[in-house]
Structure formats: structure tokens, C-alpha cells
Design brief:
The complex is a heterodimer of chains A (about 80) and B (about 650). Chain A is α+β, with helices and mostly antiparallel strands. Chain A has a single domain, classed as SH3 type barrels (Roll). In chain A, about 20% of the residues lie in helices and about 35% in strands. In chain A, strands 1-6-2-3-4-5 form a six-stranded antiparallel sheet. In chain A, strand 4 and strand 5 form a beta hairpin. Chain A is globular and about 30 Å long. In chain B, about 60% of the residues lie in helices and about 5% in strands. Chain B is α/β, with parallel strands linked by helices. Chain B folds into two domains: about 230 residues, Rossmann fold, CATH 3.40.50.300; about 425 residues, no CATH class. In chain B, helix 11 runs antiparallel to helix 12 and helix 23 crosses helix 25. In chain B, the strands form two sheets. Chain B has a seven-stranded mixed sheet with strand order 2-3-4-1-5-6-8, with helices on both faces. In chain B, strands 7-9 form a two-stranded antiparallel ribbon. Classes of the chains: A alpha+beta (about 80), B alpha/beta (about 650). Chains A and B meet through helix 2, strand 3, strand 4 and strand 5 of A and helix 4, helix 9, helix 11, helix 14 and helix 15 of B.
């Protein structure tokens, strides 16, 4: 279901909400410190373009393309990355 | 013995290869050392590093060390900590670092290089996989990158012997500068200052750097190179397809285990027959004496017991190495993350659990890649339930004994059932445990899916050989010592030749120390349907499971049967005729054999594993390792007894 809040759908999506092939630019990374650091050090820093490539067969984790490589990320992790479409 | 290698050549500088997983580090290592290397225990760590002489590096003598992949100097899982510790502590720290980075993801991989340079390490950067970048219409400007980073840079294909003399020259120059390496305190300060702002700033600086260093390959093409193809590759569309992807995954798993059974079994039979023949030859050539028996039955038979399960281990390691090198293993781990997370584990538990089907010890070491502590503990806890190669000889023997020769499919089915049951029991334990134990850390899964490529057979073969050799070295001596002690126990005290004409060997074994132990524990083994001799074999299996088969052969005096068949054939003949001393009931009945199978499926009968588990479970010390030992073995015994008695009550012989 699409969230009724337009601001969320158009401006500030969380990463797992991207459609296949859709690209966003990282706005911020949330979550607890260790998790946040892991995401940042993987390259999910502010301003980085990220593209949702495809889901894995069970629907989770999701595959994203970032900084020249592909990274499988669980939805619960992807939820902490805010992107602007 | 193992740790001797770095100390043997204190004068030679030590060069460590550092980089992320999948950056081509190990390929470069193989090229530099010509695939000749040893695995050594690094001081203060149980992990083994691959270290070898850089014999392909002309004009610069040094030793090269391969390290587990890291993305940052601040580790987020135990395997990463091992690499970081090697850089900052221990008495044999590397003198020069070779940072390895993938040309296609320079910003991500240079993040680590930047950290190493900022800390003041002498670094040479090797940029790999430019061929993939060239295909995108881009190239790396080596000189530019070198100036921007202020360190020597080599863009090269580690699969080829190229530019090695230039690299040697750069390493020598760096070594001569005799730079001081950063101290632990410097590192602590660095790690403390690594704020989120710092990380973002570093990446932004690297973005700018990448922009300057990566250029279009052809003048006409724009800054972005050739038009990029977005979306998944065709291979990934298939490998990660909701239906096809699952089928391929299941197919790959089936193929691996089929290979183990169908390819390993004849090889194992061959080794078995060979050593059976060697024992016979040794006995016919050497004068008949106590020493000859010790040599032939004890030593030669013992070596056979060590080698018989090698085919299975080598095949599984080869298959996993092949899948890993092709890039599929990471996709497999991502694929099973969801189901495994339902049972309290993680996609990263996949490789350790699969390795557990070869041997629990390397499997437990592989569990270090799991960042979440609770998930790592649960993985470590259930690894011994995966039927390791040592159990295959026991399963094979008992199933072949139980199942009529005209129904070989039943054996295959039963074997599959046994292998699956081990995982299912583990899944139940892990599910229950994860409901009650709450970890402090949130669970997550992040894993790079490397580009798919054809694996390099030589690299896979070399790593298979090293893993298999490592296994012989670790498990071999233990098994051999046990086989020998068991022989001595069954043949001492030396009995005088019987005067009443009864069988000499029989008198010797039934009056031996082993017999006394066996009789002592008979009340425990009897409910499982085993007499004192079976009890001795069972106990000896606690040193390492596969010893059980050899022990059975020994305590039931199989060697003396002059049968044409190999040892197994003789053992079968013996097993079917064996009866309890006293009431004359047969020992190896259907219920007893099933009981032994169940016991072997669950019991933790491997002391080396207990020691490794203790180590890997870290600060929890002995407790979980001992719970594991007690729980699995106790439950195995109780279930086996219940099964045997239950079947008997139902009238099964």
C-alpha cells in the first residue's frame, strides 16, 4: 500500500521502498550506532546514488547497486537508509 | 611446528595483503608465491594465515601473508578483528602492506587504503579487475591515482605474471625507507575519532579522487564512459529468480552431496582395500611377532583410518571453493538468509553449516564472519549436528550391513535422510534457543554479491589441497595415536599362548585392558544392544568418530579372517555371525544398528571440536562447549536406547 503522506513517497523514501530499477540518493542513515557505522562504511553515505536491482527469491534480502558493486541488504537494514528519489 | 614459519626467516620482511573480500587478494597471493605457501598460526590467534615466500617477485626477497577480508580498520565481526589484530599486535607485524582494490568500486575499496595511509603504514596499492572497467569504457589513470594518494599504485591483473619486477622495486624502496609502523595506541586514538562525519567526509573525498583517477577509455566517450546497462545481469535474473533461483540452489546442493556419495564412495573403498592389502602384505613379509602386529594392524591400519575419509573432505572443499570463486556462494548465502533468519540464524551461517558436512573445525572458524553474536553462537552450537565426513564411514558401514544388496536405492534414501535429519535437529534446537535467548545486537544482513565469473581451476585446486592437508595435519595425529593406543590396550597385558588349543588372538583380546574397560562400561552400552566389545569401539569413537569402524574391526578381530574381500567385506561377515558371550543372541541386529546410527547422528564425539568450540565461543568460556558436549551426547544416548528398546518391544530383532 502506498503511504498517504506525499512527502514520504516523493521526497524521503526508505531504501526498501524503491521500485526495481529505481534510483535514489542517500539522504541519511539511521539505526543504532554499530549498524549505522556498518552501513556508512559500506558506502551508504549522504549523496551516494543507490539503485534497487532486484529481490532475492524469498523476497528478502534485496539487491542494491552502489558505488560500482552489488550489495544484498536485508529489508530491516535497508529501512534505516533514507533516500531522495 | 606450525607457527615456526615466520620465525624461521626473521631477516625477511613480511608483506601483508590487505583488502575487502572479493578484491582479488588471494589470487594475487597465489601469483606472488607461485601457490607455494604454508598455513601458520599467528601469535595470539587460533586462525591460520597463509604465508609463503614471494618467489615470483624478482629482486626482492620477502614473505607474503594473506589475510581475511576487511572493509574497515574498525572490525564488525571476529574474522575482521583477526586481520586488524595482525596489523597492530603480536611480535611479527607486517613491515609493508599491499592494499588490493577493485577498479570497479574504487571509492569503496580505497576507504580502507585511505585508513591505512592515514595511520602511516607503508602501503603499495594494487588495483585489480580493470578488464571489467574497460568493458564499461573506463580506465584507471595509474599515475594520477598514485599522485593523489601519494603511494605507489599498480593496475594489474593478478591472474597474470605481470609487472612483478616493478612491484618488487616499489616494495624494496618502501622497505628501505624503514618507516615506523603505527603503534596500537595510535590505532586506538584513530578508532575513537572515527565519527560518522569522518566516514562521510572520507567517502566524499574519495568520490572526488575517483572522479580524477577513473577516465574514459576512449576520447570520444563522455565522462560516464559507455552507456551503462542498469538492472540485474542475465545470470542474476536466472540465479536469483523466485522459482528458477530456488531450483538452481537446490540442484547445486544435491549435486554437491551426490558427488560426495557417488564420487567419494569408490575412492574410499579403494583406500580401504589398499590398506587392507598392505596389512596382509606386512604380516606375510615380517616375522610373526607382537611388534609386527602392532605395525601392521595398529600403525598401517591407523593410517588407513586417517586417509579413508579424505575423498569426501576434498570433494566438499573443492565444490565450495568452486562456488565461492564463481561468486555463487555469496548469492547462496543471500538466498537462504530469510529461511535461516526464521530459525534464529543468518544467511552468513550458510557457509559454516555447509562446511560442517566436511568437518566441524574449519566450519567453526568460518562462523567468524557472522557479525551478530547470538547468531554466531547458535551457528557454532549446531555445527556438530551436520554429519561430518568422519560419520560417513560409520553410516556407510551400518547401512550397507542393514540394507539388502538388491535395494541400493534404499541406502541412498537412508543416507539422505540421515544428512537432512542432522540439519533438521539443528534447526529445531536453534529455533527453540533463539526464542529464549535475546541478543543485545539487532540482526542484519549485508553482503557484497561479487561479479559472476568462471572460477580459476588452479586456484580452487590449490586451496582444496591446502584445506585438505590442514585437515590431515590437525586430525591425523590424534586419530593415529588413538588407533595405536587402542591396539595396545586390546593386546596388553601380553597373554601366554593358550595350552588348551583355543584361539590365541581371542584369548589375548578377551583378557586385555580394553576388555576390562569394556566389561566395566557394559551396563551402559548393553541397553543400546552392544556387548563389551562394541562398547570399546564406541568409546574409541569419542576420540574421532571414524575410529569406530577401525575399532570394530580390531576388537572383533576381523584381520585374521582370510577373506578375499577388503576389510569391509570381512567386517560384514564377522558382524553377522557375532553373538553375545553367554546367551548367544546376535549383536548386530536391525535395532542395534539403527540405535548406533541415531547415536552417531547426534552425539558430539570429537574432542578437537570441543576445544575449538570453547575457543570460538569466546568469553563464555567452557560453559557452552560443555553444554554442547553433554547435551548432544546425553540426548544421543537416551534416544538410541529408547529406539533400540522400543524396536525390540515391537518385535524388531
Amino acid at each position: 500500500m502506498i503511504a498517504p503522506n506525499l512527502k514520504i513517497t516523493a521526497e524521503n523514501l526508505t531504501l526498501e521502498r524503491l521500485r526495481p530499477g529505481q534510483q535514489g540518493v542517500v539522504v541519511s542513515v539511521e539505526g543504532e550506532p554499530a549498524q549505522r557505522r556498518r552501513l556508512l562504511e559500506a558506502g551508504f553515505v549522504q549523496g551516494s546514488p543507490v539503485r534497487f536491482v532486484m529481490a532475492t527469491p524469498f523476497g528478502d534480502p534485496l539487491v542494491f547497486s552502489l558505488r560500482g558493486t552489488q550489495i544484498a541488504l536485508r529489508q530491516s537494514d535497508a529501512r534505516h537508509v533514507r533516500v531522495r528519489v | 611446528m606450525a607457527a615456526a614459519t615466520p620465525e624461521n626467516s626473521p631477516a625477511l620482511p613480511l608483506v601483508a595483503l590487505i583488502g575487502s573480500a572479493n578484491c582479488g587478494k588471494t589470487t594475487l597471493f597465489n601469483t606472488l608465491t607461485g601457490s607455494h605457501y604454508n598455513t601458520v598460526n599467528y601469535p595470539g590467534a587460533t586462525v591460520e594465515y597463509a604465508v609463503g615466500d614471494a618467489r615470483r617477485l624478482p629482486g626482492f626477497s620477502c614473505r607474503v601473508m594473506d589475510t581475511p577480508g576487511i572493509t574497515s580498520l574498525v572490525p564488525s565481526s571476529p574474522d575482521e578483528k583477526v586481520t586488524v589484530d595482525a596489523l597492530f599486535q603480536g611480535d611479527r607485524r607486517p613491515d609493508i602492506l599491499v592494499a588490493v582494490a577493485d577498479a570497479n568500486q574504487l571509492s569503496r575499496h580505497l576507504y580502507l587504503t585511505r585508513q591505512l595511509l592515514d595511520l602511516g603504514f607503508p602501503v603499495v596499492l594494487v588495483v585489480t579487475m580493470e578488464d571489467l572497467l574497460l568493458a564499461k569504457g573506463l580506465r584507471v589513470d595509474e599515475r594520477n591515482l598514485s599522485e593523489l594518494l601519494d603511494c605507489p599504485v599498480f593496475v594489474l591483473d593478478p591472474r597474470k605474471q605481470e609487472r612483478l619486477s616493478q612491484m618488487a622495486e616499489a616494495l624494496r624502496a618502501l622497505g628501505e625507507k624503514s618507516q615506523t609502523r603505527p603503534a596500537r595506541a595510535q590505532y586506538e586514538a584513530f578508532a575513537a575519532e572515527l565519527t560518522e562525519e569522518r566516514i562521510s567526509e572520507t567517502f566524499h573525498a574519495l568520490d572526488a579522487l575517483e572522479h580524477l583517477a577513473v577516465k574514459p577509455r576512449f576520447e570520444k566517450a563522455g565522462r560516464e564512459g559507455l552507456p551503462q546497462r542498469h538492472g540485474p545481469s542475465t545470470a542474476d535474473r536466472i540465479l536469483l529468480h523466485p522459482v528458477l533461483g530456488l531450483l538452481i540452489f537446490l540442484g547445486a546442493m544435491c549435486a554437491i552431496f551426490t558427488a560426495i556419495f557417488w564420487m567419494a564412495a569408490p575412492l574410499m573403498d579403494g583406500i580401504d582395500a589398499l590398506f587392507g592389502a598392505l596389512v596382509t602384505v606386512a604380516k606375510s613379509v615380517l616375522p610373526a611377532s607382537w611388534a609386527t602386529d602392532l605395525f601392521a594392524d595398529g600403525l598401517v591400519g591407523g593410517v588407513g583410518a586417517v586417509l579413508v575419509f579424505l575423498p569426501q573432505i576434498a570433494i566438499l572443499f573443492f565444490a565450495m571453493g568452486y562456488l565461492e570463486d564463481s561468486g555463487y556462494l555469496a548469492r547462496g548465502a543471500a538466498l537462504v538468509d530469510r529461511p535461516l533468519s526464521r530459525i534464529g540464524l543468518n544467511g552468513k551461517s550458510f557457509v559454516p553449516l555447509l562446511s560442517g558436512y566436511a568437518c566441524a573445525i574449519p566450519a567453526m572458524l568460518a562462523a567468524r564472519t557472522i557479525p551478530n553474536r547470538l547468531e554466531r553462537m547458535l551457528t557454532l552450537f549446531i555445527i556438530p549436528l551436520m554429519s561430518c565426513s568422519a560419520r560417513l564411514p560409520v553410516y556407510a558401514l551400518l547401512l550397507a550391513f542393514l540394507i539388502p544388496k538388491d535395494k541400493p536405492w534404499l541406502g541412498g534414501l537412508a543416507m539422505t535422510g540421515l544428512y537432512l535429519s542432522g540439519f533438521l535437529i539443528g534447526a529445531v534446537i536453534s529455533t527453540i534457543a533463539s526464542r529464549y535467548l535475546k541478543g543485545k545486537e539487532t540482526s542484519g544482513f549485508m553482503l557484497e554479491l561479487p561479479a559472476l565469473r568462471a572460477p580459476m581451476l588452479r586456484v580452487v585446486l590449490v586451496s582444496t589441497w591446502h584445506k585438505t592437508w590442514q585437515y590431515i595435519r590437525k586430525a591425523g595425529p590424534t586419530i593415529l595415536v588413538i588407533a595405536l593406543s587402542l591396539w595396545v590396550l586390546t593386546h596388553t597385558p601380553v597373554q601366554p599362548a593358550p595350552s588348551d588349543g583355543s584361539d590365541r588372538e581371542y584369548v589375548a583380546v578377551s583378557n586385555s585392558y580394553a576388555a576390562r574397560i569394556g566389561h566395566f562400561i557394559e551396563p551402559v552400552t548393553a541397553p543400546m544392544g552392544l556387548d563389551w566389545r562394541g562398547g570399546v569401539a564406541l568409546i574409541s569413537g569419542f576420540a574421532a568418530r571414524e575410529v569406530f569402524v577401525g575399532s570394530l574391526a580390531l576388537v572383533y578381530r576381523v584381520q585374521e579372517l582370510n577373506d578375499e574381500a577388503g576389510m569391509t567385506g570381512k567386517l560384514f561377515a564377522r558382524m553377522s555371525e557375532l553373538r553375545f558371550e553367554g546367551d548367544g543372541r546376535r549383536i548386530f541386529t536391525v535395532s542395534t544398528c539403527l540405535g548406533i546410527l541415531l547415536f552417531y547422528l547426534i552425539a558430539l564425539q570429537c574432542f578437537p571440536t570441543v576445544a575449538v568450540a570453547r575457543n570460538e565461543m569466546g568469553s563464555w568460556r567452557w560453559r557452552p562447549a560443555l553444554i554442547q558436549l553433554g547435551l548432544f551426547t546425553g540426548v544421543a544416548y537416551l534416544l538410541a536406547v529408547a529406539l533400540v528398546q522400543g524396536l525390540r518391544a515391537l518385535g524388531v530383532p
